Amino acid sequence: MTAPRSDPNLATSPLGTDTLETRSGADGRSGSRGGRPELVLGRMEQLMRVRLLRDPHAGRQCARTGTMTTGPWVLDPDGRPFSAAAAVIMDNTLATSLHASEPHLQWIVTTELTLNVLRPLPADGTVLESRTRTRAADGTGGMASGTLVGTDGTEYLQATGWFQGVEGNDPAAVAHFTAMAGLPLGPDTEVPLGRLLGAQPTTPAPPAGRPEVTDDFGAGWGFDRKDELRNPHGAVHGGALSMMAALAAQQAMPDRSGFELQSLRVLFLRPAGGEIASRVRVRHAGRSLRIVQVELFGAANGPGAKPFVQAEAVFRPAC
Q: What CATH number is attached to the domain comprising 254?
């Protein structure tokens, strides 16, 4: 499978936090079927096999706004399906609904994303659909909610997102985003999620057994610099950051094989880029519930750096 070629008629007018649309043609309509704008998917969407749909009337109703084909890219470092892999499609499709509902909003960024997992994702090529709707919108931003479902109606995950309007983007960031969108999807992308994100341990694995509950943060997994994961704003994709935070939380539990993600709440404090480090702390380590807090920050800024993401992951016993 290869990614679509970048469009030479690209314009900087987004439909979601991490997509662009093609420029209007000579007839005054956007270049597409029936005059509807064509989406230019970012590299992160392509890596997660996400397709985005747009209907100008879909903002306020529960509408099908995107699809995600599952595969090895939804697997965690231990080879198990990891529901945080849905962060990319939900981040984008929630934003798509908000744009449809509030067309005056041009560029928006995610300020908060929450995932509630209903059952583990499949990893066998199943196509999942995101159905989203706007819950609140005004000239400054808004909130949308949605569900990720199978074609048979099985619900896998529910999500909510808050978004804030921002001013236009740096043309250089948009040009980089466009170039990355033209890269092929070769065999090197048919890999587990951690490899796509450049995840790696930075300290020896904690002792086996139940994790230690602590008030202090400790060093967690790190993530290589991957400029292909940037959005049109020049920052790392919010869905990618969400998955990094979830992986860092999961890897803080030595006995993680007995637990699966229940929920994830991510707060985006400032733009992220470069090599990313994490600090983690386990707040509760019971037999039926685990709570792990995570902060992501720039590795080059040292362990005391201000975080650009704060997250809390809740885990429950695996079925």
A: 3.10.129.10
